[in-house]
């Protein structure tokens, strides 16, 4: 394995240092990157690691989770300075990291996603708080994660309707495609607070909007762009799109689609038939960064969330502060503490493993610090599609596992008992809707939730044993830690 060394060594200019160089300082940190079929992602990530301006030596390890896309060949040919930890099967994020972390001997272990690109000062910034005044109380640090592209910030307004007695949502327009200069970007648009989430088949999803809200569309830097929207609604009506820009800025639309625009605003038509409308936005429209994560929170009902998620970065999170949980993408931890805690829980596979580990760090009396200067640019959900069955299964199950291990008995029992009750309610609602529509009920969501319940019950004895072990070594009471939980 090759160390990167600082200052006058080659790594200071982005080239790998030679192991055993005379006078070289021992490495301070090991950066662990888990990879599964990410050959298309690794170059940007590892090139970013080669550019690190760190005043200390460090190691870069890639755990390859049995990739079949040529990842290992890529690493051998282009990144010989990276130490590859090979797994013969896919251990997920939790198990993959653990495969390397259990062998880490440096003072700090730092985690990085293969779909993230670190800025050149990221590693130095994420470790700096440990040696600053009060740093002895820190167990982990976490940085600022922004989405990889830059975005055009749009505001949408459209009249709404309520579809029926079994669906009380106020719906605006159904969007099935968004393009930028002809390139499909539907899955890359950020609009969590505007839409109700993906619906329809995974191969052809669509999104219903609310009446008002904001969406951020990824666009290239510089020059005008033409946006295309394929959409439909219950009746003929107008959609208003507005965006920031210099006073008097104008945008052109395709007259054939019934659009008109001016002053950073466009009026676009939508009707019962699915149609495509276009609007051209001038090159002087500002591009913005959008936050993915600035530390984590846990809500009072036990759901984990990214702090600052999908907020435009205007500097509102530019102050360092303690947070409840760290994000597994860009998390630094004292290795000695990680070894004591056993690192991640292998059973989680992926999702909520970082929240569980953070909760256990805090149970030992250590703080977790958010570091705004440690910036990563992240391709969101590059390894797993958000709201896919894989995503839903692991987030649902692992939330229950985490609460069983870490939360007060009251919160854990409330969440665990609520889950089957909600499953039954959803199933009955689906049956009523199918009867009213004289169609077949959607059974896949119910079957998926039943899988969650079955898997949780199989792991319950293990989680209860872990709960007792956590309590035996904790210095902070569970009730005290839950003062960090945030109301919806």
Description:
By secondary structure, the chain is of the alpha+beta class. It has 3 domains: 3-146 and 307-378, Alpha-Beta Complex (Spore Coat Polysaccharide Biosynthesis Protein SpsA, Chain A), CATH 3.90.550; 151-281, no CATH class; 389-484. The chain contains 10 helices and 25 strands. The longest helix has 30 residues, at 444-473. It is globular, with a radius of gyration of 24 Å. Mean pLDDT is 90; it is low at 5-23 and 247-262.
Question: Would you kindly provide a brief summary of this structure?
Answer:
Helices cover 27% and strands 27% of the residues.
Helix content: 25-40%
How is the CATH topology of the largest domain named? Answer: Spore Coat Polysaccharide Biosynthesis Protein SpsA, Chain A
Point out poorly predicted stretches: 5-23, 247-262
Radius of gyration: 24 Å
The CATH architecture of the largest domain can be named as Alpha-Beta Complex
Tell me about the largest β-sheet.
Answer: 11 strands, mixed
The protein's oligomeric status is: single chain
Q: Helical region count? A: 10
Structural class: alpha+beta
Distance between the termini: 46 Å
The CATH class label of the largest domain is Alpha Beta
In total, the number of strands is 25
Give the DSSP E fraction (strand runs of 2 or more residues). 25-35%
User: What's the domain count?
Assistant: 3
Can you identify the CATH superfamily of the largest domain? Answer: Spore Coat Polysaccharide Biosynthesis Protein SpsA, Chain A
Q: What best-fitting shape do the alpha-carbon axes yield?
A: globular
